[in-house]
């Protein structure tokens, strides 16, 4: 019985830790100022219904230059008056118990600091999970720029 309870607790803990994250292509959570970097956004579906839309707000100072196409997804890019990418939305389907990775290349800001990645995950039932630090349960992914 203890083994079953331990296993159940471990599974529940892994679900509690899972959320939309941005890391470097190698999985690092730190990078260098001014460096050209490939990033990956990983989004797991944590509900019994599919994820249908993922919106990423680009941190200030980061300059996205290109995206890797993702089969089955349509990408929409928002830009500011200078032509810099400010947000990206991918529409498609990530089934329950699956995850998707979205890759893009960018140049880091010239200054050191922290890149906070706000991600909004929409589900087929219309609900949206805001991975944006709006609560302790939905933290924004962060990367340290050194």
Description of the molecule:
By secondary structure, the chain is mainly beta. The chain has one helix at 2-17; strands spanning 21-24, 30-31, 36-44, 51-57, 63-67, 74-79, 85-94, 99-107, 113-123, 128-131, 141-145. The protein has a single domain, classed as Sandwich (Immunoglobulin-like). The protein is built from one helix and eleven strands. It is globular.
- The assigned CATH architecture is Sandwich
User: Would you tell me which CATH topology applies?
Assistant: Immunoglobulin-like
Order of helices and strands: HEEEEEEEEEEE
What profile does the largest beta sheet have?
7 strands, mixed
Coarse structural class = mainly beta
Shape: globular
Q: Count the domains.
A: 1
Please work out how many helical segments DSSP would assign: 1
Q: How far do the termini sit from each other?
A: 48 Å
What is the strand and helix layout of this fold?
Elements: H1 2-17, E1 21-24, E2 30-31, E3 36-44, E4 51-57, E5 63-67, E6 74-79, E7 85-94, E8 99-107, E9 113-123, E10 128-131, E11 141-145
Parallel strand pairs: 2-11
Antiparallel strand pairs: 1-3, 3-8, 4-7, 4-9, 5-8, 6-7, 9-10, 9-11
């Amino acid at each position: 019985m203890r083994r079953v309870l331990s296993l159940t607790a471990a599974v529940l803990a892994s679900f509690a830790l899972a959320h939309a994250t941005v890391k470097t292509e190698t999985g690092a959570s730190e990078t260098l100022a001014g460096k050209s970097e490939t990033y990956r956004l990983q989004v797991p579906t944590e509900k019994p219904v599919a994820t249908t839309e993922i919106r990423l707000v680009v941190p200030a100072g980061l300059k996205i230059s290109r995206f890797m196409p993702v089969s089955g997804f349509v990408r929409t890019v928002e830009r500011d008056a200078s032509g810099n990418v400010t947000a990206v939305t991918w529409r498609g389907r990530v089934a329950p118990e699956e995850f998707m990775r979205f890759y893009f290349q960018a140049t880091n800001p010239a200054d050191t600091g922290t890149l906070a990645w706000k991600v909004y995950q929409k589900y087929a039932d219309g609900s949206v999970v805001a991975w944006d630090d709006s609560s302790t349960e939905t933290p924004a992914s962060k990367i340290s720029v050194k």
